[in-house]
Amino acid sequence: MTELKGIHIIDDTQDAVVNLTIDEGIIQSIEPLDIAPDTSQPVVMPAFTDLHVHFRDPGLTYKEDVVSGSRAAVRGGYTAVNMMPNTVPVVDTLDKARDVEQRVRALGLIHGNQAVSMTIGELGQDCSHLLDIPAGAIPFVSDDGKGVNRDDVMEQIFRICKEKGFLIMAHEEDARYSPQDLRMAENMMTLRDLILCEKTGGRIHFCHVSTREAIEAIRNAKRKGLKVSCEVCPHHIFYNAEQAHHYRVAPPFRTDDDIEALIRALQDGTAEVISTDHAPHTPEDKANGANGISCIETAFALCYTKLVRGGFLTLQQLIRLMSTKPSAMMGLNKGRIQVGMQADLVWADLQHAYPIDPADFASRGKNTPFAGVTVYGRILQTMRAGNIVYSA
Which residues, 6+ apart, have CB-to-CB distance to 372 below 8 Å? Predict the structure, then answer.
């Protein structure tokens, strides 16, 4: 039995000083105390869940692997992640997915779900492999890193996933437009997939939405009752293209107008989730034009600094976006601090500023446009199922 006395807990439903007990990894009791929080002390939140990471394992482990990725996750306050399948080879079978998940589980640091690709080899041509996966065996499918350009194949994916209960996680980029206009590439494929969603009655989650036009189309689809959800990434709300010095990421940094639209979507619930799209690279690969940011260790601090200290969201709203909702979408018994839920907790210092230093990253990828940026919200400690898995 573990007892935590006089801790200041905050989740999406409560903000209180409590005594809390944990046994066998589960929260057993919460006793509210009639005292005001000591703002000089850390806050305790439900640990975060990331629906969108690239741990590069198998095949690209010189960039990241499940060990370094898991260590980076807990350093960032995350105890659950969904790994994208654009590895070498592509994770396009259930056996490949289970192998990655087993290796993550053996480390005992985080819960790791491995998504399966929507098309064989992520080639965008054949989705028949999805027929071999039992209904309900996996939560997510994705060809992240590229869009499925063939309309007929994407319609098939919608129909199979509706029958099997898999959620499509779509990277919206129409390759026909990418060389000329990356905004058009995202917007056109978003509209296409909303049409297919309505036609088939299926479900879709839009990854890393970055344009005003795309988020407004998603908002309108929700009003019509379509089964759609979407995520926003920290980097797309923190910097515009000029501030990021055109640092390469897909989709790219956008305009102040786009940032305003994304923040509004987080405020009104159009975007239910903040995901990192953690994408570690070597310096050589970045120099050669690779897209991506190593960001799972900086996500909370960037979001807390920009959104909460900036006056756009409350901390409780941010927790819902980074923990409560993504945990529910992954089907996990976590995301709130309440009796009966797994004791996945994170301690954070909200009072003291610090500069981001990629040399401190646990990730193999040190690639970030935020080096030297001063932020608030340093992660001090992460607990998973009652066990401390990270301490600063």
Answer: 355, 356, 357
Q: Which two tokens stand for residue 104?
A: 């993550």
User: 4 with 148, same domain?
Assistant: no
State pLDDT tens for residues 275-320: 999 999 999 999 999 999 999 999 999 999 999 999 999 999 999 9
Give the Cα separation of 384 and 256 in Å (integer): 37
pLDDT tens column, 136-175: 999 999 999 999 999 999 999 999 999 999 999 999 999 9
Residues 6+ apart with CB under 8 A from 312: 263, 266, 267, 306
Residues 167 and 289 in one domain: yes
Backbone angles phi, psi at 145, to 5 degrees: 110, -20
91: closest CA among 71, 120, 62? 120
E strand or H helix at 227, and its extent? strand 227-232
Q: Which of 312, 317, 383 is nearest to 344 (CA)?
A: 383
Q: Which residue has 């990894």 as its token pair?
A: 25
How do beta strands 2-10 and 273-274 pair?
unpaired
Q: Are 62 and 167 part of one and the same domain?
A: yes
Q: Which residues partner with 44 through β-bridges?
A: 9, 347
Q: How far apart (Å, rounded) are the C-alpha atoms in residues 199 and 333?
A: 33
Q: Provide the β-strand partners of residue 141.
A: 116, 168
Q: How many other CB atoms sit within 10 Å of the CB of residue 53? A: 24
Q: Which residues contact 338 (CB under 8 A, 6 or more apart)?
A: 11, 27, 30
Are the C-beta atoms of residues 218 and 230 closer than 8 Å to each other?
yes
Q: How many structural domains are present in the chain?
A: 2
Quote the distance between the C-alpha of residue 237 and its chain's center. 14
Cα 142 to Cα 129: distance, rounded to the nearest angstrom: 13
Cis omega (within 30 of 0) on the bond before 58? yes
Neighbours of 128 (CB within 10 A): 10
Plot region of 13 (φ>0 → left; ψ -120 to 50 → alpha; else → beta):
alpha
The amino acid that residue 129 corresponds to is: H
> Are both 56 and 21 inside the same structural domain?
no
CA-CA distance, 142 to 136, in Å (whole number)? 15
Could you say which of 277, 285, 357, 360 is catalytic? 277
- Overall pTM > 0.85: yes
34 labelled catalytic? no
Closest to 348 (Cα-Cα) out of 314, 372, 383: 383
Residue 354 lies in a domain: no
